Amino acid sequence: MQQKWSDRPPSEDTIDVLLNTSPAFLRAHGALLAKALPPVSGFGIFLLYFYRNHFYPSFDLFQFSSLLLAAACIGFAIVGAVIIMMVLPGAALFHWFLNTKRVKEEIVYAMPYAEDARTKAVWQLVLLAYFAPFGVVGLGLVAALVLEPRLFTITALLWSVFVALGFGIALQIRFDLPRWSFLNYTWAAFIPLLIFVILLSTILRSSMPIVENLEGFWHYPILWAVPVIIAIMVSICSMAHFAGWNAALLFGLFFGLLVAGYSGLLTTVPEKAVKALGLGAYEAEMVMLDPAFCNTDLSELGIAEDCTLRNVHVVWSFGESIVLRPALNQPRQIQIPAVFVRSLVQKSGAGH
Questions:
Q1: How do residues 170-204 score in pLDDT, each as one tens digit?
Q2: Could you read off the pLDDT of 318-342 as tens digits, one per residue?
Q3: Which parts of the chain span the membrane according to its record (predicted)?
Q4: Do 67 and 277 contact (CB within 8 A), yes or no?
Q5: Closest to 192 (Cα-Cα) out of 229, 232, 164
Q6: Which pLDDT band, with edges at 50, 70 and 90, does 55 fall under?
Q7: Domain ranges across the chain
Q8: Which ranges constitute the DSSP H helices of the chain?
Q9: Which of 9, 118, 128, 301 is the most exposed place for a label (fewest CB within 10 A)?
Q10: Are the beta carbons of 167 and 188 closer than 8 angstroms?
Q11: Residue 334 DSSP SS3
Q12: CA 189 – CA 298 distance, rounded (Å)
């Protein structure tokens, strides 16, 4: 007889299932993932770059495992940095302040016995220790960007100190913490707030091209909303530290990938990897070609009479042919056999 729904045991929470199964999964398949993931990820990065630029090289990429591993390392570093910056602020605040013996004892003592009052106190703790400092710092930095961008660095440093000091005082008053606890919080929160500043700056910089493509009406609302959204995400990752590192890393991975994807950091990994490896995606001041290649009029391709291409975007410069995108009125992409390329003069700083 089929069991009624009301008699069935409730399903486990998805997050609890992930937290319980992920360690066992990594122990069982970690070695295989460590071997397979880097080359597959590297190949995926190159494949996406080739697809976007509508070409494929004449050699087998898997013959150059070092290129695949290098591309994977660059991709992991970019995305991993975002994930780390999601997790570290909460880790620092938790271990340097909230979980210290004196502060922890006072906070536990200050928690009411009634469930509703306790829940309210917990949210106040999260607000004062995590979300509000991150949000206020982020909004202050956006204000600096809008009003006086030249003062961004000094604003980031000084504003972080004042915000940490203010919320340290608020925490000490609200939870009746020991004397001078606000100074401990200021010291403990300064580095996490600076990490949040770096994270926010990275996201704003990478998302700016996307925002600029939208209608002007949306520019300022999005600009002011980004620090609040990032503050919420970092606060959730920070709260997860109460459950341990596994929970914090799980939330950090989820929000890190989410932010990297929507801000454009993840989608630009192929270009950044190819550019960092010096294989393409950079600007060349001049490309000198063999005169044998210029025995006909190629001016429509941007090739001058002296058999040179100037101010050209190098899409790919490795293998039997190079792929170029000259600066023409009508966008064109040309592929030239490498044997006809005498020299390629890269613009200063183009590879950085």
A1: 999 999 898 889 999 999 999 999 999 999 999 99
A2: 888 899 988 877 788 888 888 888 8
A3: 32-52, 64-88, 121-147, 154-173, 185-205, 217-242, 248-269
A4: yes
A5: 164
A6: confident
A7: 75-271, 279-346
A8: 14-53, 65-93, 101-110, 115-126, 132-147, 152-174, 181-212, 219-239, 245-263, 269-276
A9: 9
A10: no
A11: strand
A12: 62
% of the chain exceeding 90 in pLDDT: 39
- Report long-range pairs for 75-80 (Cβ below 8 Å, ≥24 apart): 75/41, 75/42, 75/45, 75/269, 75/273, 76/38, 76/41, 78/260, 78/265, 78/266, 78/269, 78/272, 79/256, 79/257, 79/260, 79/265, 79/266, 79/269
Q: What backbone torsions phi and psi does residue 322 show, to the nearest 5 degrees?
A: -110, 150
| Angle CA 47–275–203, to nearest 5 | 90
Q: Are 336 and 288 in contact (CB under 8 A)?
A: no
H or E segment and range at residue 344:
strand 341-346
Q: What is the pLDDT of residue 140?
A: 93
Say how far apart CA 138 and CA 202 lie, in whole Å: 12
Q: Which helix (H) or strand (E) holds 342?
A: strand 341-346
Q: Are 167 and 129 in contact (CB under 8 A)?
A: yes
- Give me the mean pLDDT over the 40-53 stretch: 90
3-state secondary structure 308-322: EEEEEEEEECCCCEE
Angle (CA) 47 48 51, round 5°: 85
